Fold this sequence. Notes:
Blueprint: H1 7-35, H2 39-66, H3 76-89, H4 96-127, H5 131-157, H6 161-188, H7 193-200, H8 205-210
Helix pairs in contact: 1-2, 1-3, 1-4, 2-5, 3-4, 4-5
Bound molecules: fe (iii) ion (2 copies) and zinc ion.
Amino acid sequence: MASIDSMNELLVDELRDIYDAEKRLTKAIPKLSKKATNDDLRDALDQHLQETEGQVARLEEAFGHLGEKVRGKPCAGMRGIIEEGNEHVGEDYGDDDLRDAVIIGSAQRVEHYEIAAYGTAIAHARLLEQDEVVRLLEESLEEEKAADRKLTELAESVVNLEAADAEDEGDEGELALVGASVSRGRQSSSARPRATASARGKGSPASAGRTGGRSRSR
Ligand code: FE
Ligand code: ZN
Ligand code: FE
């Protein structure tokens, strides 16, 4: 294989790697989306699929600016991340929310890998004063970051523990199943911790709040 002996060649090589990664993702993201249950998660994945197709086009434009052929070079990293994601998502989950949580985790691994790859390529394009390439790559980098932020937001909202349990057990079962610490803790987080601690009463005031969870086992 030819050696890479200039920063320009290195940049082209990096772009070929990213190009391959993005092309893989245009096939992988729809599979994740199909397995997702939550509407917002599906929408986010579908939207990012469209962005990914645009990113492929931007890379093709970047090759043009550099006077290089549009060509990918197998990205072993992305291949592995996609493979691992498919493995995890394919497990049996007792609840669809749990699978959604795994899909989010897999997608965020993808985004972080892309963010790293674009960040390095942008630095190298900047060194080479390839302003137009920098601009194209930065546009894609911003989309990757926004996708990652959206996934973080979904990670905190998609899995609804109380609703998941309520589906199985009905409303009364919900309280019993979710348990005192989770559901009461949520309702009372602003007002009641101190009252709870003093209602339990035993022990020093300072330690009562912090060790409150343990007192359930008495
Ligand atoms: Fe991408
Ligand atoms: Zn790669
Ligand atoms: Fe992405």
